[in-house]
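Sample pair:
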Amino acid sequence: MTAKVLIVEDTESLALMYQSYLIPTGTTSHIANTGQAALDFLATHTPQLIILDIMLPDMNGMDILASLPDTDERPQVVVLTGHGSKELAVQAIRLGATDFLEKPIDAERFRVTVNNALKLKTLTEKVSSFQNQYSNGRFCQLVGSSPIMQSVYQIINSAAASKATVFITGESGTGKELCASAVHQCSPRAKAPFIALNCAAIPKDLIESEIFGHVKGAFTGATNNREGAAGQANGGTLFLDEICEMDLKLQSKLLRFIQTGTFQKVGSEKLESVDVRFVCATNRDPLLEVNEGRFREDLFYRLHVIPIVLPALRERGQDVIEIAEFLFKKISKEESKDYQGMAPTTRHYLVNYDWPGNVRQLENVVRNTVVLNESGWIEVTMLPQLQHGNIINTATQAPLSATPEPSKRARFSDGDAQIEPLWLAEKRYIEQAIAVANDNIPRAAAMLEVSPSTIYRKMKQWQEMSV
């Protein structure tokens, strides 16, 4: 879509010159010679960029800048300043202007500034669009607004547009198939088939036929030709769940299929070609499977292009409540029950339970509760199986990282009180988060609500201080 630019300049010759500067950028532009003309244009049009002169005959350009709505549709603004008006330009930046140019204006500098402002507008719109997708705690079929899940959503959103293979890992019940489906739904292949195949649920002697299909008479019981998952997913996405369960001999055929996009049905000599995007998942440690010889190393590196690590439910904080609310409403509707809400004690209990079965276990608990109870108000006594479950007690958890040696901790003392330096306390806390995240720095950063670069920088500082 062609970008729209509004040029607000009272000197007609200058306005026409700026308009000519924009010709190589491929934008469409409109000129307003007065402040009122600019406001009239903005009342019916939404440009991506405004080139705004501050000194106008009927009003100050700052009044136009101040009148712009503070919404996602707000255009970028580049302020034009004359001699001695830099102070006004600085004030304009504080009011939300993107940049300013001092007259007289060089053509090349003008175009660079305009292009930068339009790129910023495009980026802002993309970020806003993405944030709106999960601002209500939902992203496709995934539920949860915790920082660690927002990190997952960002990876999905970025990876979806490409054809790169996605490799999803996570404990059983964390929603790996929903994650794979989200990759498909956000991709250009969304209208094409999404075919899911569980490699652990199919006998080893039949899985090749399930993936590639077979021809009539290929083996006992093959009474008809059959299209496999690869053919069914043509143009769309093929999701191979529990990929580490696949037999080694079949792994070599899968590797060739991924590399060439071609395969042969069982019992056929004909080579068939399809266009498929691969998404794989496992609840095992794939590198351990490689080291133990149960998974081909070359296949692992072919599949492990964009890794997504789904966190366990116990790591997602208040997401438990969001998911429980969603499930109670959904299942109550399915069972024709009236859901009214959860008691505070119920919410507290759900958050502090460690959920070894993750979201799948939570869904079973919700369905059990809805089916066996008539009341729509969920009390903690109505929850099944949890009374004897494992409760997370953060107050008694021991630090997961090594405690600094006493000589470094007891820097200051007052009687029996010992105060350690703040950086040591921060170090211990960050190391604990890294341990909980299984040494995954981006996941630890998401849990701490900081950028990964912040953690890497602090780790470097700690190394320098320990030398």
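The chain has four domains: 4-130, 141-309, 314-388, 406-466.
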